[in-house]
Amino acid sequence: MPPTSPLGGRTAVVTGAARGIGALLAHALSERGMRLALLGLEDEELRAVAAGLPGPAAAFPADVRDPEAVARAARQAEERFGPSSVVVANAGIAAGGPYLDGAVRTWRDVLDVNLGGSAVTAHAFLPGLLRTRGYYLQVTSLAALTPSPLLAAYCASKAGAEMLAHCLRTEYAPRGVGVGVAYFNWADTDMIRAADTTEALHALRSRLPGPAGATAPAAEVAARLARGIERRARSVYAQPWLRLARAGRALAPWAMGPLTSYLFGPAGPGAAGPATGPLGAGGRAAQRTGER
After folding, report:
1. DSSP per position, 141-189
2. Bridge partners, 35 (sequence order)
3. Nearest to 225 by CA among 9, 34, 59
4. Active-site residue among 154, 172, 183, 237?
5. pTM, whole model, 2 decimals?
6. pLDDT tens digits, residue range 149-177?
Protein backbone atom coordinates (compact mmCIF):
# COMPACT_ATOMS: atom_id res chain seq x y z
CA MET A 1 0.00 0.00 0.00
CA PRO A 2 1.36 3.45 -0.85
CA PRO A 3 2.07 5.01 2.58
CA THR A 4 0.25 8.23 1.69
CA SER A 5 -2.87 6.64 0.22
CA PRO A 6 -6.04 7.97 1.84
CA LEU A 7 -7.80 4.73 0.90
CA GLY A 8 -6.02 2.31 3.23
CA GLY A 9 -8.27 0.40 5.63
CA ARG A 10 -11.46 1.44 3.85
CA THR A 11 -14.00 -0.56 1.86
CA ALA A 12 -14.56 -0.26 -1.89
CA VAL A 13 -17.32 -1.73 -4.03
CA VAL A 14 -16.68 -2.33 -7.75
CA THR A 15 -19.41 -3.56 -10.08
CA GLY A 16 -18.60 -5.40 -13.27
CA ALA A 17 -15.49 -6.71 -11.55
CA ALA A 18 -15.25 -10.18 -13.12
CA ARG A 19 -12.92 -9.03 -15.89
CA GLY A 20 -11.46 -6.05 -17.72
CA ILE A 21 -11.28 -2.60 -16.18
CA GLY A 22 -13.31 -3.66 -13.14
CA ALA A 23 -10.91 -6.46 -12.23
CA LEU A 24 -7.83 -4.30 -12.82
CA LEU A 25 -9.27 -1.44 -10.80
CA ALA A 26 -10.08 -3.82 -7.95
CA HIS A 27 -6.42 -4.87 -7.93
CA ALA A 28 -5.21 -1.26 -7.93
CA LEU A 29 -7.50 -0.38 -5.00
CA SER A 30 -6.49 -3.52 -3.11
CA GLU A 31 -2.83 -2.54 -3.51
CA ARG A 32 -3.76 0.76 -1.85
CA GLY A 33 -4.95 -1.11 1.22
CA MET A 34 -8.69 -1.23 0.55
CA ARG A 35 -11.08 -4.08 1.33
CA LEU A 36 -12.86 -5.05 -1.89
CA ALA A 37 -16.47 -6.10 -2.42
CA LEU A 38 -16.79 -7.29 -6.01
CA LEU A 39 -20.15 -7.44 -7.81
CA GLY A 40 -20.83 -9.07 -11.14
CA LEU A 41 -22.71 -11.74 -13.06
CA GLU A 42 -20.00 -14.33 -13.61
CA ASP A 43 -19.69 -16.12 -10.28
CA GLU A 44 -16.62 -18.24 -10.99
CA GLU A 45 -14.64 -15.41 -12.62
CA LEU A 46 -15.64 -12.98 -9.87
CA ARG A 47 -14.41 -15.32 -7.15
CA ALA A 48 -11.15 -15.86 -9.02
CA VAL A 49 -10.55 -12.11 -9.13
CA ALA A 50 -11.27 -11.82 -5.40
CA ALA A 51 -8.91 -14.69 -4.62
CA GLY A 52 -6.12 -13.05 -6.62
CA LEU A 53 -6.18 -9.68 -4.86
CA PRO A 54 -3.40 -8.84 -2.41
CA GLY A 55 -5.80 -7.72 0.33
CA PRO A 56 -9.15 -8.73 1.82
CA ALA A 57 -11.80 -9.26 -0.85
CA ALA A 58 -15.02 -11.13 -1.46
CA ALA A 59 -17.31 -11.78 -4.40
CA PHE A 60 -21.01 -10.94 -4.25
CA PRO A 61 -22.60 -12.22 -7.47
CA ALA A 62 -25.48 -9.98 -8.51
CA ASP A 63 -27.14 -8.64 -11.64
CA VAL A 64 -27.06 -4.84 -11.38
CA ARG A 65 -30.46 -4.74 -13.10
CA ASP A 66 -32.00 -6.52 -10.11
CA PRO A 67 -32.66 -4.12 -7.19
CA GLU A 68 -33.27 -6.93 -4.69
CA ALA A 69 -30.05 -8.76 -5.63
CA VAL A 70 -27.96 -5.58 -5.41
CA ALA A 71 -29.56 -4.55 -2.11
CA ARG A 72 -28.80 -8.03 -0.73
CA ALA A 73 -25.18 -7.74 -1.94
CA ALA A 74 -24.92 -4.33 -0.26
CA ARG A 75 -26.09 -5.78 3.06
CA GLN A 76 -23.73 -8.74 2.80
CA ALA A 77 -20.77 -6.56 1.85
CA GLU A 78 -21.41 -4.25 4.79
CA GLU A 79 -21.71 -7.18 7.18
CA ARG A 80 -18.38 -8.50 5.88
CA PHE A 81 -16.35 -5.30 5.55
CA GLY A 82 -18.31 -2.42 7.05
CA PRO A 83 -19.92 0.48 5.17
CA SER A 84 -18.36 1.38 1.84
CA SER A 85 -16.18 4.44 1.40
CA VAL A 86 -15.86 4.03 -2.37
CA VAL A 87 -18.41 2.72 -4.87
CA VAL A 88 -17.52 2.36 -8.55
CA ALA A 89 -20.45 1.82 -10.93
CA ASN A 90 -18.40 0.15 -13.64
CA ALA A 91 -20.72 -2.60 -14.93
CA GLY A 92 -21.52 -2.04 -18.59
CA ILE A 93 -22.12 -3.75 -21.90
CA ALA A 94 -22.12 -2.62 -25.52
CA ALA A 95 -23.63 -3.58 -28.84
CA GLY A 96 -23.40 -1.87 -32.20
CA GLY A 97 -24.61 -1.66 -35.75
CA PRO A 98 -27.42 0.13 -37.58
CA TYR A 99 -30.15 1.05 -35.12
CA LEU A 100 -33.05 -0.32 -37.17
CA ASP A 101 -31.25 -3.63 -37.67
CA GLY A 102 -30.68 -4.27 -33.98
CA ALA A 103 -32.95 -6.43 -31.85
CA VAL A 104 -35.11 -4.55 -29.36
CA ARG A 105 -33.93 -6.99 -26.69
CA THR A 106 -30.32 -5.99 -27.33
CA TRP A 107 -30.70 -2.24 -26.99
CA ARG A 108 -32.90 -2.71 -23.94
CA ASP A 109 -30.15 -4.82 -22.35
CA VAL A 110 -27.61 -2.06 -23.04
CA LEU A 111 -29.82 0.62 -21.50
CA ASP A 112 -30.86 -1.56 -18.56
CA VAL A 113 -27.30 -2.51 -17.59
CA ASN A 114 -25.50 0.77 -18.26
CA LEU A 115 -28.09 3.24 -17.02
CA GLY A 116 -30.58 1.21 -14.99
CA GLY A 117 -27.80 -0.79 -13.34
CA SER A 118 -25.99 2.39 -12.33
CA ALA A 119 -29.18 3.77 -10.77
CA VAL A 120 -29.75 0.51 -8.87
CA THR A 121 -26.13 0.49 -7.64
CA ALA A 122 -26.33 4.07 -6.41
CA HIS A 123 -29.64 3.42 -4.64
CA ALA A 124 -28.27 0.38 -2.79
CA PHE A 125 -24.92 1.83 -1.72
CA LEU A 126 -25.57 5.53 -1.11
CA PRO A 127 -26.75 4.94 2.48
CA GLY A 128 -23.32 3.55 3.33
CA LEU A 129 -21.56 6.37 1.52
CA LEU A 130 -23.57 8.89 3.51
CA ARG A 131 -22.32 7.34 6.74
CA THR A 132 -18.69 7.34 5.63
CA ARG A 133 -18.87 10.61 3.66
CA GLY A 134 -17.53 8.50 0.84
CA TYR A 135 -17.07 8.73 -2.90
CA TYR A 136 -19.13 7.40 -5.83
CA LEU A 137 -17.53 7.05 -9.27
CA GLN A 138 -19.72 6.58 -12.33
CA VAL A 139 -17.91 5.04 -15.30
CA THR A 140 -19.04 6.49 -18.62
CA SER A 141 -17.39 7.01 -21.98
CA LEU A 142 -16.62 9.36 -24.82
CA ALA A 143 -20.05 8.09 -25.93
CA ALA A 144 -21.57 10.27 -23.19
CA LEU A 145 -20.06 13.35 -24.80
CA THR A 146 -20.67 12.89 -28.51
CA PRO A 147 -23.19 11.04 -30.68
CA SER A 148 -21.82 8.20 -32.74
CA PRO A 149 -23.19 6.26 -35.68
CA LEU A 150 -23.77 2.56 -34.99
CA LEU A 151 -23.76 3.06 -31.20
CA ALA A 152 -27.12 4.70 -30.48
CA ALA A 153 -28.11 2.64 -27.43
CA TYR A 154 -24.61 2.77 -25.95
CA CYS A 155 -24.36 6.55 -26.36
CA ALA A 156 -27.82 7.06 -24.86
CA SER A 157 -27.05 4.84 -21.89
CA LYS A 158 -23.72 6.47 -21.12
CA ALA A 159 -25.10 9.98 -21.47
CA GLY A 160 -27.86 9.03 -19.06
CA ALA A 161 -25.39 7.55 -16.59
CA GLU A 162 -23.31 10.73 -16.72
CA MET A 163 -26.35 12.87 -15.97
CA LEU A 164 -27.37 10.52 -13.15
CA ALA A 165 -23.99 11.14 -11.51
CA HIS A 166 -24.29 14.91 -11.91
CA CYS A 167 -27.75 14.79 -10.29
CA LEU A 168 -26.46 12.68 -7.41
CA ARG A 169 -23.71 15.21 -6.84
CA THR A 170 -26.19 18.08 -6.56
CA GLU A 171 -28.22 16.13 -3.99
CA TYR A 172 -25.54 14.49 -1.87
CA ALA A 173 -22.42 16.68 -2.04
CA PRO A 174 -23.90 18.93 0.69
CA ARG A 175 -24.04 15.80 2.87
CA GLY A 176 -20.39 14.93 2.30
CA VAL A 177 -20.56 12.41 -0.56
CA GLY A 178 -18.16 13.03 -3.43
CA VAL A 179 -19.36 12.06 -6.90
CA GLY A 180 -17.13 11.67 -9.92
CA VAL A 181 -17.56 10.74 -13.57
CA ALA A 182 -14.96 8.69 -15.44
CA TYR A 183 -14.62 9.07 -19.20
CA PHE A 184 -13.02 6.37 -21.40
CA ASN A 185 -12.41 5.94 -25.06
CA TRP A 186 -11.36 2.55 -26.43
CA ALA A 187 -9.45 0.38 -23.94
CA ASP A 188 -7.89 -3.02 -24.48
CA THR A 189 -10.62 -5.13 -22.90
CA ASP A 190 -12.55 -8.24 -23.87
CA MET A 191 -15.49 -6.08 -24.96
CA ILE A 192 -13.43 -3.90 -27.28
CA ARG A 193 -11.54 -6.85 -28.73
CA ALA A 194 -14.92 -8.45 -29.47
CA ALA A 195 -16.07 -5.21 -31.13
CA ASP A 196 -13.07 -5.34 -33.45
CA THR A 197 -14.18 -8.75 -34.74
CA THR A 198 -17.52 -7.35 -35.94
CA GLU A 199 -17.88 -5.84 -39.38
CA ALA A 200 -19.82 -2.75 -38.29
CA LEU A 201 -17.73 -1.64 -35.31
CA HIS A 202 -14.43 -2.46 -36.98
CA ALA A 203 -15.57 -0.26 -39.88
CA LEU A 204 -16.40 2.55 -37.45
CA ARG A 205 -13.18 2.42 -35.45
CA SER A 206 -10.92 2.06 -38.48
CA ARG A 207 -12.33 5.32 -39.86
CA LEU A 208 -12.00 7.44 -36.72
CA PRO A 209 -9.32 10.14 -36.95
CA GLY A 210 -6.32 10.57 -34.65
CA PRO A 211 -6.58 9.43 -31.03
CA ALA A 212 -10.33 8.79 -31.35
CA GLY A 213 -9.59 5.38 -32.86
CA ALA A 214 -6.63 4.45 -30.62
CA THR A 215 -6.73 1.78 -27.92
CA ALA A 216 -5.39 2.50 -24.44
CA PRO A 217 -3.84 -0.27 -22.28
CA ALA A 218 -6.46 -1.43 -19.79
CA ALA A 219 -4.00 -1.37 -16.87
CA GLU A 220 -3.20 2.28 -17.61
CA VAL A 221 -6.91 3.14 -17.60
CA ALA A 222 -7.42 1.37 -14.27
CA ALA A 223 -4.44 3.20 -12.75
CA ARG A 224 -5.89 6.57 -13.78
CA LEU A 225 -9.22 5.65 -12.21
CA ALA A 226 -7.51 4.64 -8.96
CA ARG A 227 -5.65 7.95 -8.80
CA GLY A 228 -8.90 9.80 -9.46
CA ILE A 229 -10.56 7.93 -6.61
CA GLU A 230 -7.73 8.92 -4.27
CA ARG A 231 -8.35 12.57 -5.19
CA ARG A 232 -12.16 12.24 -5.03
CA ALA A 233 -12.08 13.83 -8.47
CA ARG A 234 -15.21 15.24 -10.08
CA SER A 235 -13.94 14.10 -13.49
CA VAL A 236 -11.48 11.32 -14.33
CA TYR A 237 -10.11 11.02 -17.87
CA ALA A 238 -8.76 7.64 -18.90
CA GLN A 239 -7.08 9.33 -21.86
CA PRO A 240 -5.97 12.95 -21.28
CA TRP A 241 -7.26 14.22 -24.64
CA LEU A 242 -10.83 13.49 -23.50
CA ARG A 243 -10.70 16.79 -21.59
CA LEU A 244 -10.82 18.51 -24.98
CA ALA A 245 -13.70 16.33 -26.12
CA ARG A 246 -15.65 17.31 -23.04
CA ALA A 247 -14.89 20.98 -23.54
CA GLY A 248 -16.18 20.76 -27.11
CA ARG A 249 -19.25 18.66 -26.44
CA ALA A 250 -21.66 21.46 -27.45
CA LEU A 251 -20.29 21.25 -31.00
CA ALA A 252 -20.37 17.46 -31.24
CA PRO A 253 -23.98 16.97 -32.43
CA TRP A 254 -23.43 19.55 -35.18
CA ALA A 255 -20.05 18.15 -36.23
CA MET A 256 -20.88 14.45 -36.24
CA GLY A 257 -23.35 14.68 -39.14
CA PRO A 258 -20.81 15.97 -41.69
CA LEU A 259 -18.08 13.77 -40.18
CA THR A 260 -20.23 10.65 -40.54
CA SER A 261 -20.96 11.48 -44.18
CA TYR A 262 -17.24 11.99 -44.78
CA LEU A 263 -16.25 8.75 -43.06
CA PHE A 264 -18.85 6.47 -44.62
CA GLY A 265 -19.63 8.11 -47.93
CA PRO A 266 -22.98 8.19 -49.75
CA ALA A 267 -24.02 4.74 -48.48
CA GLY A 268 -23.85 5.96 -44.88
CA PRO A 269 -23.03 3.90 -41.79
CA GLY A 270 -26.09 1.70 -42.32
CA ALA A 271 -24.12 -0.21 -44.94
CA ALA A 272 -21.13 -0.78 -42.64
CA GLY A 273 -22.28 -4.22 -41.51
CA PRO A 274 -24.98 -6.01 -39.55
CA ALA A 275 -25.97 -5.19 -36.00
CA THR A 276 -24.17 -7.08 -33.25
CA GLY A 277 -25.47 -8.69 -30.13
CA PRO A 278 -23.99 -7.80 -26.73
CA LEU A 279 -20.22 -7.87 -27.08
CA GLY A 280 -17.74 -10.03 -25.22
CA ALA A 281 -18.17 -12.53 -22.41
CA GLY A 282 -19.67 -9.95 -20.07
CA GLY A 283 -22.23 -8.92 -22.66
CA ARG A 284 -23.19 -12.53 -23.32
CA ALA A 285 -23.59 -13.14 -19.59
CA ALA A 286 -25.92 -10.14 -19.33
CA GLN A 287 -27.94 -11.40 -22.28
CA ARG A 288 -28.28 -14.89 -20.81
CA THR A 289 -29.33 -13.53 -17.42
CA GLY A 290 -31.84 -11.16 -18.99
CA GLU A 291 -33.49 -14.01 -20.85
CA ARG A 292 -34.24 -16.01 -17.72
Report:
1. -GGGTS--TT-HHHHHHHHHHHHHHHHHHHHHGGGT-EEEEEE---BSS
2. 11
3. 34
4. 154
5. 0.94
6. 999 999 999 999 999 999 999 999 999 99
